[in-house]
Amino acid sequence: MASKLGMGSLYCMLFLLFIVSQNPVSGRNKVLDPKKPCKQFVLYYHDILFGGDDVANATSAAATNATKLGNTYFGMLVVFDDPVTKDQHLLSHPVARAQGFYFYDMKTDYNAWFAYTLIFNSTDHKGTLNIMGADMMMEKTRDLSVVGGTGAYPNKSNKKQYKPCKELSFYMHDILYNGHNLENSTSAIIGAPKGFNLTHLADPISWFGDLVVFDNPLTLDNNLHSQPIGKAQGFYLYDSKIPYSAWHGFSFVLNTTDYKGSIDMVGANADILGQPVRNLSIVGGTGDFFMHRGIASLMSDDIQGEAYFRLKFDLKFYECW
Ligand SMILES: *[C@@H]1O[C@H](CO)[C@@H](O)[C@H](O)[C@H]1NC(C)=O
Ligand SMILES: *[C@@H]1O[C@H](CO)[C@@H](O)[C@H](O)[C@H]1NC(C)=O
Ligand SMILES: *[C@@H]1O[C@H](CO)[C@@H](O)[C@H](O)[C@H]1NC(C)=O
Ligand SMILES: *[C@@H]1O[C@H](CO)[C@@H](O)[C@H](O)[C@H]1NC(C)=O
Ligand SMILES: *[C@@H]1O[C@H](CO)[C@@H](O)[C@H](O)[C@H]1NC(C)=O
Ligand SMILES: *[C@@H]1O[C@H](CO)[C@@H](O)[C@H](O)[C@H]1NC(C)=O
Ligand SMILES: *[C@@H]1O[C@H](CO)[C@@H](O)[C@H](O)[C@H]1NC(C)=O
Ligand SMILES: *[C@@H]1O[C@H](CO)[C@@H](O)[C@H](O)[C@H]1NC(C)=O
């Protein structure tokens, strides 16, 4: 597997998604039967690593270089937007995109840490699944965790209605560092694809490959200068060749009289489906959000080129403690 990952290569990965049934019984001892998933399907994803001249076909690109720590690409960050099909054929009609990234993270062998979102667009499924974990590439079969999912099934007759146990709404403001706005910038590009620098977003079409770290204020209304109720801290990575999609991993850290604690989130914020509302998985929390899970829906409230954007978040928790 490792040798097939050389520049400009294609590899195909077989996915067996077993989603194990979970009965919401006692808080500490969930009864799981790994032999009985409540849902399962088989998918293939196809990755064509950018080799320098295959812009049209490539679906992934290195956004940072490998370090000198070992000969196994240690430290290289690869961003991808891969087609996912039901069979082994690259050119079959994709039922989903796999968008996200992996880091090579082992000095002595090929091993990568993956975090990505399957964004379904098929007659069977609409919505996302968020997946992460260590991919021990030398093993024939590897397991990753499905940490959350969003979206509804188009088949109305089996669409269940769920009622949130807690809801929150607020705005997040992001001012990108451009080399001249140290005082009020709240985010900075820390990784860019070959040929781009850290004070301008890359490729004007999609910003593909830019990795941005942020410490953004949160406010209850849409005014940047309102008293913040907390921070959003983490990163996003532009992960698509067409505008605009970014993979987010971050936490809201709230500090108000009502709420103290953090809310942790992952997922693809993909504008590509032409849907104004996108959904991330809330995978955990601390403090007043101890062990909470749910869905964070977001929409763009204002975008000023690459200088500033504001997102409106509606958080719905379906597991509260
Ligand atoms: C893209 O892939 C197709 C099918 O594999 C191939 O025929 C074509 O030459 C490739 N184009 C480039 C620019 O690599
Ligand atoms: C919708 O879901 C129900 C229950 O799972 C199933 O019986 C039915 O065949 C589905 N209908 C379609 C059109 O897929
Ligand atoms: C940040 O500060 C600069 C310089 O004062 C100003 O030009 C810019 O408009 C500010 N950005 C925002 C989003 O307020
Ligand atoms: C990787 O290293 C090469 C050669 O040192 C350099 O030209 C290139 O810009 C680097 N790429 C990234 C993404 O930093
Ligand atoms: C970064 O790149 C932009 C254009 O892509 C250029 O205008 C700017 O001068 C560059 N900045 C630095 C510090 O190299
Ligand atoms: C939370 O808010 C209180 C009161 O405004 C302040 O004293 C404290 O430093 C804040 N804590 C954090 C972690 O920001
Ligand atoms: C989703 O699927 C529909 C129907 O096949 C297609 O028209 C549309 O372009 C797809 N959207 C994306 C973003 O792939
Ligand atoms: C996000 O979730 C909302 C509410 O369930 C839904 O209306 C919307 O279509 C979802 N967005 C995407 C891109 O799936």
Automatic annotation (TrEMBL):
<comment type="function">
    <text>Dirigent proteins impart stereoselectivity on the phenoxy radical-coupling reaction, yielding optically active lignans from two molecules of coniferyl alcohol in the biosynthesis of lignans, flavonolignans, and alkaloids and thus plays a central role in plant secondary metabolism.</text>
</comment>
<dbReference type="InterPro" id="IPR044859">
    <property type="entry name" value="Allene_oxi_cyc_Dirigent"/>
</dbReference>
<keyword id="KW-0052">Apoplast</keyword>
<protein>
    <recommendedName>
        <fullName>Dirigent protein</fullName>
    </recommendedName>
</protein>
<dbReference type="GO" id="GO:0048046">
    <property type="term" value="C:apoplast"/>
</dbReference>
<dbReference type="InterPro" id="IPR004265">
    <property type="entry name" value="Dirigent"/>
</dbReference>
<comment type="similarity">
    <text>Belongs to the plant dirigent protein family.</text>
</comment>
<keyword id="KW-0732">Signal</keyword>
<keyword id="KW-0964">Secreted</keyword>
<dbReference type="GO" id="GO:0009699">
    <property type="term" value="P:phenylpropanoid biosynthetic process"/>
</dbReference>
<comment type="subunit">
    <text>Homodimer.</text>
</comment>
<dbReference type="Pfam" id="PF03018">
    <property type="entry name" value="Dirigent"/>
</dbReference>
<feature type="signal peptide">
    <location>
        <begin position="1"/>
        <end position="27"/>
    </location>
</feature>
